[in-house]
Amino acid sequence: MSILDDARELAASGPLCDACLGRVFAERSFGLTNAERGRSLRVAAALDADEPFEPVDTADCWVCEGLCDEFDEWAERCAESIEGTEFGTYQVGTRAPPLVEENELLLREGAGLPEDAGELFKSEFNREVGKRVGRLTETEVDFGRPDVQFTLDLEGDTVETRVHSAFVYGRYRKLERDIPQTEWPCRECDGSGYQGKQPCDYCGGSGYLYDESVEQLTAPVVLDVMDGIEALFHGAGREDVDALMLGTGRPFVIEVKEPRRRVVDVEQLEGDINAFAEGKVEVEGLRLATYDMVERVKELDANKTYRAEVEFGDDVTADALKEALAELDGATVEQYTPHRVDHRRASLTRTRDVYDADGELHDARHATVDIHGAGGLYIKELVSGDEGRTNPSLAGILGVDAVVTALDVVAVEGEEEAFEDEEFFKQAE
Ligand SMILES: [Zn+2]
Ligand SMILES: [Zn+2]
Fold it and tell me: 198 alpha carbon to ligand 2 midpoint, in Å?
């Protein structure tokens, strides 16, 4: 059978619109809509048989029941649903009515064609509405992770519009101690601020153990500028609450859910955050990032450089300190899970490398020690020995007690590659 015979057979099934006819031959030729395919076949079949041309009103189509006339309308509804929200990319999905999908099979079956001939009704709907949405909103389709996802529920007669999160990457420095990275709910009242009907004694009724966090000093500004409904803070690990984060800072991503603005001036945002955080926290290198940056920040293997203020239990000489640090430099350290670490975590012995160890003695009892080590190396225990649970240790080598009185992180860098990979940013630098 020729394509014209097939077309005649299909058209004979009842009133069939151009798009539903053409869709059966969707894989033939390029640059045509299914409606153009259908109309051309109908015209060619009429010419071929020298019969009168009989157009079909789409509203009468027994397969789509007129839906193929509604591309413009659905596209307009999509555009309206997102008015006032900034986006650059979108994707359209269609839930086809089961009846239409059934009719599609019947149509092909009736003409003796394979049931998957051409393309699916919903594929055409996605594409045709999608093209129109792009024109109406001057945005682009993205089949990966678009800014906005429209789902057309044809039977329910609704457009579901989902605005995906926007992401800002950067590095933060924490310049004051006793600030946790993220909000820390009070463990006595589970963050409610109450014990029974009384305000919680432990947290003073705030529900938080600390008044401020890096998250609280940064995320609200991004939330406000992007005009979203919620902001989440994702850090590349975290320093101890009482440790400073200095030097090049720690990578983080702030995620804003359902943003109405997503293309923001990151330099201005940086200034706004730094003004808001009043010198307790500073951010730099802000960039608009992709969804995948969250996982990268959380999962990428990172090494850390620390600066520890150390106090000794007995006098130490500059030479002895120098020799001890030389011994730690390049050492592989065995660490049994420290006492201070979450007791719910399974205890185990793990090994971590010290890449670099350096330091300076201030007086016989005090020194500043710089340690560059693999991610997960416990620095306080590397200094103190943790009662023999960490080996080797500075205290162990020196044969005197040693404790860290202040610990700062000065660098957090990817072990194999930098966090800042262009592939994970929205715009070129
Ligand atoms: Zn139709
Ligand atoms: Zn409390």
Answer: 10
